[in-house]
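W.,

You were right to be curious about this one. When I first looked at the sequence I had no strong expectations either way, so I just let the prediction run and decided to look at it fresh. Below is the sequence, 363 residues in total, followed by the output.
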Amino acid sequence: MTIKIAQLVDSLNLGGTERMAVNIANSLANEGIESHLLVTRKVGGLSSFVQSNVSIKVFNKRSKLDLISFFHLLRHLTKENPDILHVHQTSIFWAIFLKVFLPQTKLLWHDHFGQSEMLELYPRKEMKLIMPFIDAVIVVNEIIKNYWQERFPEKKQSIFYLKNFPEFLKINRVYSQSEVLSIINIANFRKQKDQLTLLDALKILKSEGFLFKAFLIGEFVDLNWVESVRERIILNGLENEVKIVGPVSNLIPYLESGNIGILSSESEGLPVALLEYGMAGLPTVVTQVGQCGEVLGFGEYGWVVPPKSPSNLAQAIKEIFLDPDNAEKKGQKLKVHINKNFGPNNFLNHYFDIINSLVIQKK
């Protein structure tokens, strides 16, 4: 029997949720699955990475109550009649109403919620009404898995943690020592990603005579936060050292030329950017949030520091400056670790177990 899987995602902007939707769509198509990628609102920088063997359709939703777009989407799904509707993050709200008209389609929700250290601040009370209609849930870290299983014990056997995986990138990074190190931070501009802590750490490094160029790469999600970052760069006297790059669709040149990859987030799930650092073999520093510590082997493959601690972050970066050979060895160990444990095959093996159980239920 041929399985047909349609994914529903809000946009194809340059974010982690969107990257995973594209990665899954491409991987499914490569496995011979009929793979559909349905974009409710708009395409973005990731649209060029969708393979030709993936069916992609955009519905140009203008608001939550855009009934015209909703019925266009419903008509398309009714025609295609997928076995699985794999819905990412907030697209679940439309999916619940779509499910009413598609009773034979199994609903799989992929919760990418990255603020797992702040769940008490974001209780998502609406899920009490929504969860009974969801057939299975995939989450991006253990914290969120435990949270949903405790909150909905009747769904415990249908909630799964699957590790994110990066797109297979052909990165030819050559290790070279330099007095001026290139630091890259791939994170959308919003408070959760806490670029301010990184800037405060860089201020410490500059005051101690270390030479570097830092590149902040990501979508301008929160314009107020972007302005805060600009102001902190000036306040810390880093105008010559830090560049706000903004959204970039092709990360390879930055990954190939970088010396250090950093995530200074105050909360995370399992960031795809961290996996991309690993694919490049970059010496990497992360905060101990979400699954970041696990990915770095709790220090075996990189440096793990407390969140919101510029001094600890600066100290970790200094260790890379002062012992670049050891840093490069850790980066290469991280590369091997990522390829072995966070590749698409690792994800797909568990994913197909979930899909097959849902298809059996459908029969």
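Here's what jumped out at me. Residues 4-165+343-362 form a domain with the Rossmann fold fold (CATH 3.40.50.2000). And, maybe more interesting for your project: The first strand starts at residue 4 and ends at 11.

Coffee later to discuss?

I.
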